[in-house]
Design a protein that fits this description.
The chain is mainly beta. The protein is built from 7 helices and 42 strands. It has an 11-stranded mixed beta sheet, with no helix packed on it. Strands 1, 2, 28, 31, 32, 33, 37, 39 and 42 form a 9-stranded antiparallel beta sheet that branches. A hairpin with a 2-residue loop joins strand 21 and strand 22. GO terms for molecular function: signaling adaptor activity.
């Protein structure tokens, strides 16, 4: 089998000047194009005469109550004059203004009835017991003075729905109200509060910004979604576990020693180097992936970050069915062990620091499936050098809409000044809709888009569809947005121009995918194959050998190339010409490169210079190996190993004679991409004396052949 490029050499004679013109040029046919494409009243209702009777009474509480009732009955049944009523009201107002703390608290209005009853009747719920001034009083007889004298209240598991009236306990330092049915608490007037235990309730909000003396706070087992402790700088212990917190900032709590925040929805552990007094942290059962904030907390003897539950989208799956999970963060980047929970079939695992690599997976096999991770405690250097440490959990993979972006040129190798047609396909490959789609091209210097060429799904589009301005809408499963457009290429030979495309959309937050492709500006004096089609083929040959015009002579002439004829986008003058070929067959059976120069004939084929003896000589040729072919990383090894057995250094091709072998690669040789380098100043044409006829232009064909048999 033979793979060939044909090179035409043209010989011209001009009779009127007595000279013969000789030039060599190439003509090849291009291969087909490929398209790739988010105030209660404090008044009790009794008048001033009741207060006076109560204050003056020296009897028992029963007699006080009887006196009050009697006075009420008397007041209601006695007809008084307007003057008497006014005087009574004035006296009542004056007495209350003199000592408002003597005001009775009406149960159900000023203070929660059940809360008040507990205070009045159960000596165990407050620290003063039977000695408290309010203990033993009847309904509605508690006063502000009674409440303000309280320093400690314990009403744990008392089936309370409200602590209304707690604000009157202005001297309160310790409150325990766990395991009730409380949905709201107001401690804005309890400025002396130091210990607060309100766990086991139904609180959705807790405002403690006014309680700056607070040292111990247990608000666990509620329904809190936020907790602001920024003003509680004296906090020593904080237990906010079993809530619904997504954020917890304790960076201001420099005295904090014990932090218990397990079983929340925390994604970030917001501590800082200022929290140097932290001794113990339990942040287990959250959604933490990064524990590096615990580094340098040298007093931290215990931290438990076990059983985290982290949910992330299914990662990108490579063409080789590999995926990586790069969300875990530790300071030492070591000690990680991953394992499978539910991916079927089970993947293979490897790690690189905190990164987990999975092999033998597909997108479908990972949707709604999980893996587990754990770190060896001895490899965690966060906190102190001693103590107990743990970091482990589950990573769940959920499906989000997945868009693919494929950006392809119709030509990979072009000349400066050519047009390239691009196809950009954006496809929703998932079962979920992707919305608010934007596409944005980033064009390099050397690619200019023809704005009149932009087509979207068969319709005329604008540049705003490609620069991230226009919202392209939504894509349902398997739907496609297809753009086509043209760019004009400019630049230097050998330059790679990379076009980048980015697609942004929304699904569980902002998402994006990128794609890119490149075109290479080829040398004007090299003819490249438009597309690669075979495993064994010639990829590039010299475009032309330009010798200019010469005098017809009765003696033999040797003509060399003139640099003045190579002033366009080319590097052949300095680098030389080359013929490039590749062998990527698995058989490794060898190959052979030959070249043959045909007889010269005039352009009308009327005259053939048979046996003319015209010779094309190529000297100092050498073979080179090409690495990373047709990519920006392409490199040339000028002194390769493992070269084919036979490489001609010098060769002369006589017109009309048989082909000559330039390279011969035996079996197991010549695999990969190679090129035969031909120095510019070592390509000469020998023209025998008196060759050709006057007023004739001649052409010859130089055929490069790559055969699969050495």
């Amino acid at each position: 089998m033979s793979k060939s490029f044909r090179l035409f050499l043209c010989l011209g004679l001009v009779l009127s000047q007595g000279i013969m013109g000789v030039m060599v040029s190439a003509k090849t046919t291009s291969s087909k194009k490929v398209e790739s494409t988010s105030s209660s009243s404090l008044l009790s209702g009794t008048d001033s005469s009741i207060d006076a009777n109560t204050d003056q009474s020296q009897g028992t509480k029963n007699s006080m109550e009887l006196t009050t009732t009697s006075t009420l009955n008397s007041t209601l049944s006695t007809k008084t004059t307007p003057t008497q009523e006014n005087e009574s009201a004035k006296l009542d107002k004056k007495n209350k203004e003199l000592d408002p703390k003597t005001t009775n608290l009406i149960e159900g209005t000023d203070i929660d009835a059940r809360f008040a009853t507990l205070l009045r009747t159960d000596s165990t719920v407050q620290s003063q017991g039977n000695n408290w001034s309010g203990f033993g009083k009847d309904k509605d007889q508690l006063t502000i003075a009674d409440m303000s004298s309280l320093t400690k209240i314990t009403v744990t598991n008392k089936n309370l729905d409200s602590l209304k009236g707690i604000k009157y306990a202005e001297q309160l330092t310790d409150l325990s109200c766990q395991f009730n049915n409380l949905t709201n608490l107001d401690f804005s007037q309890n400025r002396m509060l130091e210990t607060l235990s309100c766990s086991g309730n139904r609180l959705t909000d807790l405002d403690i910004t006014q309680n700056t003396y607070l040292r111990n706070l247990d608000c666990s087992s509620n329904q809190l979604t936020t907790l602001d402790v920024s003003q509680n700088t004296r906090l020593h212990l904080l237990d906010c576990s079993y809530n619904q917190l997504t954020v917890l900032d304790v960076t201001n709590n420099v005295d904090l020693a014990i932090l218990v925040c397990l079983s929340n929805q925390l994604t970030v552990l917001d501590v800082s180097s200022q929290n140097t007094n932290l001794f113990s942290i339990d942040c287990s059962y959250n959604e933490l992936s990064d524990i590096t904030n615990l580094n340098n907390l040298t007093n931290l003897q215990t931290f438990d970050a076990s059983e985290q539950t982290i949910s992330i989208p299914v990662p990108t799956i490579s063409n080789s069915n590999q995926a990586s999970v790069d969300i875990l963060k530790t300071t030492a980047h070591r000690g990680l062990t991953p394992s499978n929970i539910s991916i079927d079939p089970s993947p293979s695992f490897s790690t690189n620091g905190d990164q987990i690599m999975l092999s033998s997976v597909t997108r479908e096999s990972m949707i709604n499936k999980s893996i587990r991770f754990s770190y060896a405690p001895q490899d965690l250097i966060e906190g102190s050098t001693t103590g107990t440490k743990s970091f482990s959990g589950t990573i769940n993979f959920f499906e989000v809409s997945n868009l693919t972006s494929d950006l392809k040129p119709n030509l990979k190798k072009v000349y400066s000044g050519d047009k390239v047609e691009w196809t950009w396909e954006i496809i929703n490959t998932s079962s979920k809709q992707a919305s608010n789609i934007y596409s944005e091209l980033n064009l390099p210097v050397g690619l200019i888009i023809d704005q009149n060429s932009i087509i979207k799904n068969g319709n005329v589009a604008t540049i705003n569809d490609l620069n991230g301005t226009n919202n392209l809408g939504a894509l349902d499963s398997n739907q496609t947005i297809k753009f086509t457009f043209e760019t004009i290429v400019s630049g230097n030979s050998g330059e790679w121009l990379e076009l980048n495309g980015k697609v942004n959309w929304e699904d569980h937050g902002a998402r994006f995918v990128t794609s890119s492709n490149q075109v290479k500006i080829i040398d004007d004096e090299q003819k490249d194959k438009a597309e690669e089609t075979d495993e064994l083929e010639i990829l590039s040959v010299p475009q032309s050998f330009k010798y200019g015009i010469l005098n017809k002579s009765n003696v033999e002439q040797i003509i060399h190339l003139n640099t003045n004829n190579y002033q366009t986008n080319t590097s052949v003058v300095t680098d030389g010409f080359y013929t490039r070929m590749r062998d990527e067959r698995p058989s490794l059976s060898g190959w052979k490169l030959t070249a043959q120069l045909s007889d010269f004939k005039d352009v009308t084929n009327s005259t053939v210079l048979t046996n003319s003896g015209i010779a094309l000589k190529m000297e100092n040729m050498k073979i080179e190996s090409i690495k990373n072919r047709d990519s920006p990383q392409e490199s040339i090894d000028q002194n390769p190993t493992g070269t084919p057995s036979t490489v001609s250094t010098n060769e002369t091709l006589i017109s009309g004679q048989a082909a000559k072998t330039l390279i011969n690669a035996q079996a197991n040789e010549g695999h990969g991409t190679w090129q035969l380098r031909i120095p510019f100043d070592k390509v000469s044409l020998t023209v025998p004396a008196n060759t050709g006829e006057i007023n004739k232009n001649y052409t010859a064909t130089l055929t490069w052949s790559l055969d699969d048999t050495p």
